[in-house]
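thread: overnight batch results

M.L. [08:02]
morning all. the overnight job finished for the chain we discussed friday. pasting input first so we're all looking at the same thing
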Amino acid sequence: MKFKNKTLLTIFFSISLYSTSVFAEFNQDVLTIGPLKNKLIIDKITENKMIQTSTGDEVLIENIINQTQNTNVYVIGEFHTNYQCHTFQRDFIQSLVKSNPKLVVGFEFFKREHNEILEQWRLGKIGEEELLKKTGWYKSKSFNYGFTRLIMDVIKENKIKVIGLNLPRDIVHTISRKGFDKLSQKEQDLFPNINISNPEHEYFIKGIFGDMVFQMPTRFKNIYMAQKAWDVIMAESMRETLAKKDYKDYTGIIIAGNNHVVYKLGIPFRYKEAEDNVNITTICPVFISEQKDEETEKFPMMKKMGKPQKPFARFSRGIADYVIAVNQPEKEHYPDIGITVKLDEDKILITRVNEESIGEKYGLSKGDQVISVDDQKITSVEQFYTITAGKNREDSLNINVIKNIICK
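M.L. [08:03]
and the structure it wrote out:
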């Protein structure tokens, strides 16, 4: 027999816990693949630096813009929850728009069907909360919008055209679970060059998935086709926009996960297959490691005689046209409080609290009803995530809940 005893609980805490990420063992930064001429050169980069891979020279954002004036499309990779990636994107667009106001920025995490909503937001007809609600940003549990807000603020300030690059996830999920041939003919037609093979890209994706490639070959085949579909649709979304009369003289900026960009094998390859004369510039981040040079570690005497080594990252010069160094912070800028909520009739209920999360630490449980956050009454899932997602690790957060205590 179960019974419920409801009590009121107010939680006040400072978001300051460590947040960790898991990275694949496959070192994808030092591969000698792709179309760039210097792909056989393994170089290194230290923190807060940017390098032009064709020369190995350090550059600033202004240098990149001056050196790429003939570029039609910039494809910028990112680690989705790395703050430095997004501050670079913000600063790059802010600098570029000064000399080239005719820009179209496309995001991986918005869909094609969101374009009208994005236009309404850009023109100030709807606010941020309505944008997130109408695009389902937190309904699909996307990454913290705070990262993307950095770029979106620049877009709105300069009235830059913004588009979604993706399709509804169920199409890609159908491909990954059942195969490309399970799509309708109309859906298949959305991916015009998906059957063009690229052995280097397949090698790259196999390296990421590791043993699964051999343990579940049919499953991997479908997953790989889904990955290609993802690349094709993001390339086509920008290409089709820039082909329109209103945007023919515009420069495109595609912002997507790093694996869609590196070595020009994902989005850039699919874009070039559809439009060979396009001039594409790629910019990708690499993570700085705290490890020291291997030589000084192998030979202690050299370590004593030499100067302390700055943290650095190794990378192949084939990875992108420009490489930026970003840190892998011990603390995330926007830590996840580890709570999932849903709307149940007129109540916002906690459906999950992650183990060892901030939410668990401060006593939140599955079944608790959220009443308010920072004295704002919570009436929607989007509102809850919008408020909590705006917090960085130094902020405090006041969550008022009705506890749901279940006893057997």
